[in-house]
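Lab manual, section 2.4: Encoding a predicted structure.

Procedure: take the sequence of the chain (340 residues), apply the prediction step described in section 2.3, and record the output as structure tokens. A sample record is shown.
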Amino acid sequence: MDEVLLKLLEAYSPTGQEENARSALVEVCEDLGLRVEVDEVGNVLASNGSGSKVWLVGHYDTVPGNLEVKVKDGRIFGRGAVDAKGPLSAMIVAASLSRSPVTVAALVGEEGDSRGARHLLGRELPPFVVIGEPSNTNGVIVAYRGGAHLTLRCAGGGGHSSSPGSSAIDLLIESILRVREVAPGSGYDVPSAAVTMIRGGEAPNVLPKEAKAMVDLRVPPGADPLSLIEEMRSRLPEGCEIVVGWTVPPVAVRPGEPVPRALTRSILSLGRKPRLLKKYGSSDMNLLHGRVASIAAYGPGDGKLAHTDMEFVDVEDLEFAVEVYVRTVKYLSDRSAEWN
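Recorded output:
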């Protein structure tokens, strides 16, 4: 188990540079006896047989920021140890141990535009999918918020900073405040708008003609991100606009559906108490939901460590997750006929 994750962590692969880890991923899967296919966009599909009704879907891209890969005190450190090479490694090992047919889909672009998951939408999918994301090892994720990446752009008249004039930065600040009126982000069920980047200005004594900000919009299940964006647009001051990039709908599934039920039963059978989780972020589950009969997310690791400089996963949690995946695949495979 350790060797599989370490090999993937040592191949640094931020979104857009997944090829750095692709060969290592293929080699690991083949060494474990899995049959491997790489599709047109770089997704790696590894199977232990044919006729699988269950897919374990993870991703092997990470956020930027290379970290030292090391093992210390029963923990494995490195970029992606939590999100999401840790869960992916456990899935790969589980597939190699499973006596039921299963496919592991290691996707690209999850931390970006989800191009790997979007590409999967063009092919036939199995009825049951488990998404590999950190869920604190005992958790089963049944909901993710949706959202969009927005660019706020403002244009001003410019001029000398000592004279009255129109500043694009002033307009941008006003725009951000108005956007946050629509998405104040006071809790899980309230839309949020986080400003992640701001650019503007050319000189200390010149009013800027252009300014822009990147905004990460998140909306809870039941909300429509596009409707909220239209409301934001209606409130912007003159000279400002919103450009919409990546968008994804929110998702929520019932705990009694086959995949979340199989995951909770597997965790219980291993002597731990499962918890149902709702995540503030999003995952490829948002896109794949609706194309399959049942879906939920599960994985080892503390989600609070994802995207941080202290990203690590406990070896004990990895080993526990492997057994959860194995039991979940068997449970779903044995009962696929009655659920289809």
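Check your result against the sample. The chain has a mean pLDDT of 95.
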